[in-house]
Amino acid sequence: MRPTPKNCLAWITAVTVLMAGCTPSKPVYVNDTGALDYYVDQATSIEYPDVSVPSLEEVNSSRPPITVTDPDFDSFVDMTLEDCVSAALQNGKLFRGYGTPALQGTRVLPGQDTVINAPNAVGTIYNIAIRETEPGAIGTPGQLSLPGSILTNTQLDSNQGVEAALSQFDAQLTSSLNYTKSDEPRNTIPTNPNQPLVFQQDQVQWQTEIAKEAANGTQLFFRNVNVYTANSNPVDDPLTPNDVEGFQVLDSFYRASFEAEVRQPLLRGRGAFINRMPIVISRIGTDQEIANLEAQLQNFVTNVEIRYWELYSAYRSLEAAKTGRDAALQTYRIVKDQFDERSSVNRQQVAQASEQYWFFDAQVTEAFDTLLKAEGQLRFLLGWAANDGRMIRPIDEPLFAPVEFDYCTTVCEAMTYRPELRSIRWEIRKRELAVAYAKNGLLPEMNVTALYRFLGLGNKYGTSDAGTQYPDPGSGVLNELYDGNYQELQLGVDFRMPVGFRAELSNVRNSQLKLAREIAKLEDSELDVNKEIHETLQSMAASLRTATSHFNRWRSSKIEKDVFDELRNAGVETLDVALDAQRRLSQAEIAFYQSITEYNKMLALLHRRKGTTLAYCGISFEEGPWPGKAYMDASEYARRRGASREMNYGWSRPEVISRGEDFPSNSNIGRKTGETMSYSYDGNVSGGVQTVPYNQPVYGSPAMLQGDGMIPANVDSMHPVLESAPELIPMSNTTQPESDVQVVSYEEPVVKQPTTQIRNIQRRKLRARTQSTSDIRSEQTLSAVPAVHSAESTTKRIPKLKKSNSSATTNIDDDSIPVNPVRMNWAKVGANSTRTSSTSTSSTVGRIVTKDIGDN
After folding, report:
1. What is the dihedral angle through the alpha carbons of 139, 142, 148, 150, rounded to the nearest 10 degrees?
2. Polar residues: which segments have biased composition (predicted)?
């Protein structure tokens, strides 16, 4: 048989296709130009996101930095500490200085204030709202959890807001519409009148259900079911007589029903205490977020104050370095003139005087660079540009009055208001609830079910105008349904129990171990806070004592320098001794201002470690507005609760988890109102701007400092008496009056039994001695002491940094620096003058003892 052309073409095509399939080839494109400039042969190259967020104006308008070689700027901006705190809180949505301040020896170091290195650790004003709106796990809509089902500890720990937890009790609406067409052959004889050989049916089912879970675990269901059916089964029509009986009355009919079902757990999952547990735990998570944010806000405010005093100290150090440099320059010129006149001065002395000048010139450069860095750090906390042509200049003076804090009250405040401890206590309360929740899982699952149904059947959907009833043709299904002629009832009990409860017991043990861990954390955290209070009080006393010593050193160095200058001019004393006196005078001045600023930083740190920084500064969290309906509902619930009658059974279930709001008292502020404070304070924390509410958890573990027995009955003075003092310290015959110090233990939440302990503390004071009038006049103004800041003090002995109206340009040239070595205002004190004595404040616990500089 010869192959036909069609067969040949088929074979050729098959062979060609097989050969092409075995030979690799590149695809050919019609518009292929060969331009592959955009081709990138790397999969992990650095790419940049397509995000366009406008930068802040402070970033775009920032000028080049001020340096020691280019120190020009436009003007000074004088700011108080209160202005700095206010600007820092207003200029930003992040807490830039969120790090915790640290204490290193007698120095207070500010906390971390960088954002770029750890942006996720920075607190923001959105944190609480984000925590409140965490969705958690979104389940299938319309489905309720099985009655008696519980969550594990891991599921309870999942981030979930209150609204997401409340969604468990939301009503669930489901509706379904299904159409089914059947065409089924049957294994039957053709002559069977009741079962046709081929069964055909059209069926439509529409079901609507609304379900809700109550707070006590009860599940409620209400559903409506409508079914339309039309099939091929024989119909027994009485109007058509035949010998075959039909299988059904109607060839098509509707079935409608209303059902109400109740499922009630009897053992596991029963009761509001268990079912509302996830909601309470979610709310505790929000309270913990508030405590964490409050801790960062307290760090932020404290760091602003620390940076403020560091900038103040930098200005003072720069002034002292300038003063020393000017004095060294003057000495150098005198020595140089004497050398040029070929007097007794040799070249070595000229070089020595020159070295002194260049030493102080380097000190000025370093001090100015330190000032620029301190000003830049404060600018960052304020949210200002790195350089906008202005220089921040502090105008508040540091406090130099001894401040006393009652130890017991201070520790009690720290244990109560420290946000870190409050967060741990909330965690303990959460773990206690988790233990109770897990123990409920040890119960078997036993549920009672009840179902009640109304139903009807008819030839058409709707009502029959003629009142035809089933089984007559033309009957309406709604007539039958509304008449209630057909009702059904179903009751049932189901019981399930795992043999051994292995998973449930593991869940309970896990929750108990987590509770024990948190209690251990709280115990050591309280110990750590107590240690911090001790360290801060010790460092405060050391800083004040050091400042007093440096002040006396400064005064002695000034006397020594003046005497050596006179002797040097008279040719009696050598040059090296005079130069050394100049250097020690400058160092003493710098050390004094550094120590006094450290003392003020200690005061701010103590308030931070007590947890009362926000209340002391009058700072509070402000909540955004709620919808108007929420205020109406809350008002209605408040009226309902106010009109109700309380039934006191001694305990409640669900039990109380919070002790409500608590505000720090102003009885242990440690400072007085007026100019003695770093910033203004009206003495009333509850007036004006409301302070932060401190919601305290109620938990079962014992609290520190509980009851009378744990509060010492006698507290020794924290200020030791000096048995001797340098002769240059002016003394007087006045003594401090005895004070009645009232120690009040906090009622809530640390001390459950409020106790008041009044004791008289005998505090020994130095007897001041006054030098004679001739001695004071011989010392001129050097024997007076700067008055401390007190309510009676009207003269500030530590002057404010003076404003310069002539030129705002910082210049480190020698001829442009005015010489004022001491930089203090002095007042003459007569032999019979009396100094300011201690004045008791309205506080009976924390008070300021105003003494002379040399008294302690």
Report:
1. 10
2. 769-783
